[in-house]
Sequence to fold (618 residues):
Amino acid sequence: MILLPLLFPLLGSLLLILLGRQLSRRLAGFVGCAASGLAFFSSLFLILSRRPTSTLLLGEWFRFGSLRLPWAFLWDPLSSVMVFLVGGVGLLIHIYSLGYMEEDPSLPRFFALMNLFTFFMSLLALSSNLAVLFLGWEGVGLCSYLLIGFWNHKERAVAAGTKAFLFNRVGDLGFLLGLFWLFKATGTVDFQTLDSLLRGGSIASATATPIALLLFCGVAGKSAQLPLSLWLPDAMEGPTPVSAFIHAATMVTAGIFLMVRLNGLFFLAPGASTAIGWVGGLTALFGGFSAIAQRDIKKVLAYSTISQLGYMVMAVGAGAFAASFFHLATHAFFKALLFLAAGCVIHALRGEQDLFSMGGLRKDLPKTGVLFFIGAAALAGIPGFSGSFSKDWILSSLFLSGHQALWALGLLVEFLTAFYIFRLYYLAFHGSSRSPERQIHKPSATMLLPLLLLALPSLLGGLLSLPAFLALPSPWRSLMASILLFPEPFQGAHGTELLLTLLSAGAALVGFVTARRAYAKAPPSRDLPSPLLEELSKRAFSLDTLLERFLLTPYSRLSAFLDSWVERRGIDRGVYLTGDLFQALAGSLSRFQDGRLHRSLIGLLATGASLLTLLVLL
Fold:
């Protein structure tokens, strides 16, 4: 049964790859959705049947010395939640794609890649060791490259896919070094064996710290943390369902899942965790500030994802693994809802993505407007919506664990989040139309139904983990208690937790009111009072330019210098000079091999005389 969430999407992908050209677009869509649906319902059956933690061993992958890597899969509470999220959100995105991509001639290829994406992410979630996880890790990277550049007739789409691929390869180099170091230190990469060693104190903090930092390099690439976050906004060049899948349940969540899976390692590396927390905090601030002046509706959501991933990484840095993973779960639903609702807007306006060319859409798309508002409220952390519970938990954990500076930074980001998402909402759906001649293409039922189903957990998902001061049952906290190797090292008085929750809610509400006043009727002349700050936000602090100027350009110049002076004029000339010398020597000696007998006799006599003279002298 553990294999079913893997086999169904893999078989669907292979069928569409082999027979896609013979299938109609309608049948290709059915195959893709059926494979995704069967994967989801098989994982749901496993969850409802309450299967105990178990490992499925299929056989040995390879053996090298003491290293033995099996094909093994682990079913436990963590993997079950992740597979459920991937399957559930993935199924709704597949159904949505039937309407969004219905006119695309490459629909069979699209669903083949989406099924393959589901397979690799499920492989990552169900792996029982780091080696099998790395296969899924690289697989989702490959699928993201292919899907971001799906419309390969567009140069920008191809460039965006390549950028995502290369940025992730940089991070994965650190991941591999960390994996090798971990094996050298422990002799295993099996998760359950590692947990036993970590719980028993067999790994010292001095060893855990560099390993954790190296593994985090891979996390920074996959989960878009500074400075490897620049690929994610460009990834919006792919179809909107792809953006939703990457941002909600697959690619970018892989890094957070890895850190929660190895929570014991990061717990034993407090120095690395502090650094990781600050990377997450700065990433959250960067993403939040960059989103507040973007004009492209998908770019706002892309920078929002960077910011929310920063929240999750901050929580891991503070040791709040349960809160981080809970925010991953709530974020999966409301971010998928926001992307798919944005896709309905783009679809209705026939490709228009500029917020300043929209306005008044709540009259033309009333259902989409209501559903987008629910997603926006959940993202902003408006009290009562799912995002408020997970973000409040993270912020409370930061404060109570002694990371007050990160808590203050997180509170600022919460204000920015509420501001930019409701700026988007009011620019798109309120006011009057800024394109009087536009023609609205109404979204189909297959596009609206997934939005409705995603809105339910965006509204009610927070009930799975109520604040501790309410003293009510919390299924999520009980679930995570069985996953975490060490208890979370912070707990405050109920009054303190209530005050922190009120401050978090206040920051979200202030951001909402500020955006409403500024954008509810008509867009202001400036998004920010300072032209410099507005330009920095639009350009995302010009990090792409800085990266090109201070890293890529010097690297290219160094490469050109090494190629010209070291490779061609140094190494190549040295090799050629050696050959030239021997060729010249051979040419000189060849004069004595011209076939004339008297020259050969003279040479023989001269050599003999020289040898006799040498013997006499010695």
User: Anything to note?
Assistant: The longest strand covers residues 54-64.
